[in-house]
Write a structure and sequence with these properties.
The chain is α+β, with helices and mostly antiparallel strands. The protein contains six helices and six strands, in the order αααβββαααβββ. Strands 1-2-3-6-5-4 form a six-stranded antiparallel β-sheet.
Amino acid sequence: MGISMLPFYRRITNSFLFASQWTTALRTSDLIQIGKLLNRLPKSSRTDDFSLDPLSYLLTFPFKPPVNYYSSGLMVDRQAGGFFQTSVHRRISRFLIPFYRKLATCPSYAEALAVAICSNNLQQINRLIRRLVTTKELKEVSRGRDGVILVFQPKGSKFPYEHWLMRELR
């Protein structure tokens, strides 16, 4: 999963143009533009399996069995009534890069995280993630539906953002 998401988050972090085009396409639910933006990424990051609305996106990638699919995405807290911001997306993406780099390059880390998630070991999940996502803007790490949820309260935003990484059961 890390190898699929890492180029995406790097592009969001390093290219204001790409990030702002992503935000515009997201806010207008422009599936064609999202597809074009994803096609600009390396093949490992391309997917045509995604969902979006003006407040969130979720990208899904195939994975080896028995998992089959993983999804990763970001959403503005719907109850807070916020809206998706390019600057915040870039900021959170920068915080996520070390985490996805580790998932991509260290199978033992990925396995330890998977074991912690499957055993519902919140202390271990927190330790593994916070070791790499070191910002104070990360307010909460929790176990979500077959994965993890990272809640950020970014500087410059009144609204919390949730980053999801989860196994898809299909």
